[in-house]
Hints:
single chain
Amino acid sequence: MPRSRNTVLIVLAFFAIYVIWGSTYLMNKIAVLELPPFMLASFRFTTAGLLVFLLAKLMGIEIKISRKQLWNAIIAGFLFLSFGNGVVVWALRYVDTGFAALEISAQPLIILLMMRVLEGKKIKPMSVIGVIFGIIGIYLLVSQKQIIAKENSVLGMIMILACMLSWGYGSLFVAKADLPSNYFVNTGYQMFTGGIILALMSVGFGESWVSPVNWSFDVKVVMVLLVIFGSILAFTSFNYLLKVVSPEKVATSTYVNPIVAMLLGWYFLKEEITLQSLIAAVVLLTGVYFINTKKTLAIFERFKK
């Protein structure tokens, strides 16, 4: 591949994981104000998974996997998407998009602590500094009176934290699990099975399903963007970047996504950005910077499977 073309692809891929992923908070917020959250997430990931399988077939990629790989993909799909993403969509009914993105930016802190608790791995001094900054940043973020005063906002915060724990455990699980070797196929199975589980969750919680015919124009546009760009394109770009650049560079999306989410929420939804939120963002992202050592970033290698 010519160097110039390779550079263009890298730039476009970074745009995808920076801006597109950062904008999914806004898109989910717009959709969840009209549609039931689990139904919304189910439609997104089931459709995306089916499209990934179709693309794999068109590209001549074998999608057959072993029973063990299927089971592991189901577990990963639940941890990452059914619970890890579906409940975040539910929580967006009660918290602002920028707040949710900032809270989730502390994910490396959660993974680091889980690696310590569950695997007994020592935390390096630089990472300890990151943990301290992270805890202070989260406190500054969630202690704002104007945010806590909103109805069910505390519940939303707690459920987002639960999602981060689910995503963190999923990260540790897939690092050792037997999953499809082709990351495209692996992603497809996780999305499809995660979407099916979300459909069962939707039925179990008694959500009223709404036909796409009855969706507003804005929600139809948002859903297309979530499926094609937020799911397939962004995940593909993420995995492509892991092959051509260092994990440290890919992990910079951790810093950019919350900023994109905050700005889009402020511009389109008139969400308030307080001074304390800005300070919390600086402190929290500084903590994430210290935590993102090469050892911690090795967790990103799981997506190469």
